[in-house]
Design brief:
This protein is of the alpha+beta class and about 325 residues long. It is built from 10 helices and 7 strands. The chain has 2 domains: about 130 residues, no CATH class; about 160 residues, Beta Polymerase, domain 2, CATH 3.30.460.
């Protein structure tokens, strides 16, 4: 039972995907045109106030060989009715009233709806509107599906003073708008990776890879979003990411052992703003996290020692 050091190093290696970059460039070009078309149908915003960029595992460099979906932000900074970018602290009450009575304004839901329609017309492909995203399936020469996050740029004011850049998104299931802090997620992940001398992101890629292998081979590990794995490991103390023998196996065992006995109540998202636990999109359940930790231990104990390779083909 257990993993070899060679297997772990292969599983944790940073992967560069040429096909991902090609697919992203293609979809970014088409999303720009879809935004222009959407502004003609719903003339509530200027296409020049929209930026399109990569987010998620590819942006954070926590993707693995098994990764397929590309996450793309389509962020609107202001509408013709309301300027989010210049919002000041004294505007907070007006802002709160604004979000209570969204029906009279062009909001994220409307932005998502009209953008979804224009993507379908432009690409001639059926998309799926998920809770907060527009999922574009693989088609033509594309090798990756695309998860598009339509959102509004938002200024979140801290109670203690100052503001944080955030994104306002819409949850179709809850029929509510809520905030995402993807910039903080990225910054905090980079900082933790630096403080652990690169071991944090190696461990994220490793655990994601183990989950992907299990899903393909024995299904011991139940399906878990990569975002949850990253947030879970973010809560592990930095000292757990170091081992005297400097072996990844030693670090893996320290991290998993710590998680196995940890009190999960105070675990936070990697943005350090929200608790990791909740029922909205982007939040997890403690019971599911505990099950994942147990599954990971079971998978480790059942894994054949003789296996040393992770996957035959090289990274793209």
């Amino acid at each position: 039972m257990g993993f070899s050091e060679e297997f772990l190093n292969n599983a944790a290696a940073e992967v560069t995907s040429l096909s991902m970059q090609s697919d992203f460039n293609f979809i970014k070009k088409n999303l720009k045109q879809a935004v222009i078309n959407a502004a003609k149908v719903a003339p509530y915003f200027d296409p020049n106030d929209v930026v399109i960029y990569l987010q998620g595992c590819y942006a954070c460099k926590t993707n693995t060989r098994f990764q397929s979906k590309i996450e793309v932000i389509v962020e609107l900074s202001k509408t013709r009715e309301y300027d989010y970018e210049t919002m000041q602290p004294q505007d907070m009450k007006m802002r709160d009233n604004f979000f209570i009575d969204f029906d009279h304004y062009f909001d994220v839901k409307h932005f998502k709806d009209v953008l979804s329609d224009e993507i379908e017309k432009l690409l001639k492909v059926k998309v799926r509107k998920n809770l907060t995203t527009i999922l574009i399936p693989t088609f033509g020469k594309m090798q990756h599906s695309i998860d598009v996050f339509p959102c509004f740029k938002y200024k979140f004011f801290r109670p203690e003073g100052g503001s944080i850049r955030a994104k306002l998104v819409y949850d179709q299931k809850l029929e509510e708008h809520f905030l995402m802090f993807t910039n903080l997620h990225t910054v905090n992940g980079d900082l933790k990776d630096s403080m652990t001398q690169g071991t944090f992101k190696r461990m994220v890629r490793l655990v994601k890879t183990l989950a992907a292998i299990s899903a393909r081979e024995d299904n011991i590990i139940h399906n878990v979003r990569g975002y949850y794995i990253e947030c879970l490991l973010y809560n592990v103390p930095n000292e757990m990411y170091f081992a005297h023998d400097e072996k990844l196996m030693s670090v893996f065992l320290k991290v998993i052992n710590w998680l196995n006995f940890a009190n999960l109540d105070d675990f936070v998202c990697q943005n350090q703003i929200w608790s990791l636990w909740g029922n909205a999109d982007g939040f997890w359940y403690q019971s599911a996290a505990r099950q994942f930790i147990n599954d990971l231990i079971e998978f480790y104990e059942a894994f054949p020692k003789k296996r040393t390779e992770i996957i035959k083909e090289d990274a793209e």
